[in-house]
Amino acid sequence: MRASLIQFGVDPQESVDSRRQRAASLVREQSGADLVVLPELWTVGAFAYESFAAEAERAADGPTHEAMSKAARDAGVWLHAGSIPERGADGGLYNTSLVFTPEGELAATYRKIHRFGFDQGEAVLMSAGADLVTVALPGTTLGLATCYDLRFPELFRGLVDAGAQTLVIPAGWPARRLAHWTLLAKARAVENQAYVLACGTGGSHAGVPQAGHSIVVDPWGEVLAEAGEDEEVLTVELDEEKVAAVREQFPALKDRRLGLRTPGA
Length: 265
Hints:
GO terms for molecular function: hydrolase activity. The protein is of the alpha/beta class. The chain has helices at residues 16-28, 52-55, 63-75, 122-125, 153-161, 178-192, 242-249; strands at 2-7, 9-10, 35-37, 78-87, 93-100, 106-111, 134-137, 140-144, 166-170, 195-199, 202-205, 208-209, 215-217, 223-226, 232-237.
């Protein structure tokens, strides 16, 4: 399977509509890939909190849905279109990822479960998702997570238990915590014996420099590709049989012990 991660640059001087069309053009350029991935909140910037409500759209028929649906269809790819600020039917805001089929159909949405901010920013402006989401592709099953989710290993265990073999993590990760980004991406791959496709952004979001360094890690923890700081496309060939092979050769997942108790409980 050929996967292309578009490490998209967010320029605050560029309009959202212009950025949307530029992203669609970059997706179309990946024709020949099987899966294309965009980063988190690339329409507005992950730290542009004041833009969340103003640029929020519906997941099922908003302008980003329309542009990404057409781009996926034109390129003939599965497209994880990163995430958008979604205005839910309940009136709440969500950080929502969209996944499209090569025919341009919306295959899945994922509302980010762990919101970043420690009672500020995203943590108070957006509602939390509650559902683990997987998507079956020919040859692999994707498990969906977003940015800050990367710090919560129990979410990924749940995705693996639901059948995930490839973990896709769009992000708007700040440059000052780059070391955590690469460390955690490798850890999630090793502990879950799964591919990790972690797609970040370049540029700056509301004055917060972005880490870039999108990374692809295999089920044994080997880094197959890593981007630099600027806008870049990583294209990697993934061995669809490797996840099963690693899990068979080193069956650590079978040795998990669940339901452990503290003494005296």
